[in-house]
Input
Amino acid sequence: MALFHIGLIINPLAGLGGPAGFKGSDGMAEKALEQGFEAKSAQRTKVALEALLPLRERVHFVVFPGAMGETLMQEMGFSHEVVGTLASTQTTASDTRQAVLHLQEAGVALILFAGGDGTARDVCEAVRADQPVLGIPAGVKIQSGVYAVSPRAAGELTARLIQGGLVRLATGEVRDIDENALREGRVTARWYGELTVPEEGGFVQHVKQGGMESEELVLNDLADWLQDSWEEGVRYVFGPGSTLHGLAANLGLETTLLGVDVIENGQIIAADVNEHQLFELVEDKPARLLVTAIGGQGHIIGRGNQQISPRVLRAIGLENIRVIATKRKLGTLEGRPLLVDSGDVQLDDSFPDVIRVWAGYKEELLYPVSK
Output
């Protein structure tokens, strides 16, 4: 039986800026490492490739050296060959582009790449228009429609390809935002190109729906409900996004549009916290987590809010999560489920099949969740 040749590229620095509260990793990865944050992209890639272990005899990988692919191949025992060389121990965008060229030259059927929108841009710059690629989400901000909804979904879709399943090829947009503007609270996104991606059902995420919602009456109603239900001595963690930012504004609070804030007894006690700070604030205190869904995609955990890590979620308790989303925002999902991608498969599997969504004053909706 012929081997299925897969190219693999791991951006070892992807996602480092998320837990550190940097809103991105571009130019900030070294600082995050200095602060004690650990890269997770290899682990997320491993989760994806675990779906291929039963097909080990049918797969052959082509990878770049070291942390960009070789190390994980050795750990997991897949058949593989190493191509190219690294300019230095600290990988760069140029290494990603060089890897794409080498993998294409090797004739791989599919290129899997782990990273965020910056990595997708680098892949887009070097890849041929007809080369199928699929992103394993490992970055802080993922606006592009070229990533699977989770690492496990990337693996399952790849397994379907290997087994001859009918998988449609589609065009996915590559988008990225200006991280310097993002750190100043401004969202400036632009289109960078398109990639050919395999697509099937709910495996591949949609491009993020941008823009500030102006449903002031709904947010005012939600603020009234929250104000009526404040619990004394409980810490409320407000996740990022325009919905929660607008909700806080109706409470007279100035939260961080694209960061995580902690509120207690109606006052902000910590603003724009990183993962370490957030865990310390909720580890031994009763807490409630407020998150919203990304319009058009549906992620409530794992996109732009990596400060809310698996250990933070466990400390707060899944039963204490409140999803805040207007009906208009839920409508952008067109019936697709809400998505969780915490980076911890066991934790993701612990989420309920349906979750309560606050959509208006004392109005809760039951909405499906997919892991």
User: Anything to note?
Assistant: The radius of gyration is 20 Å.
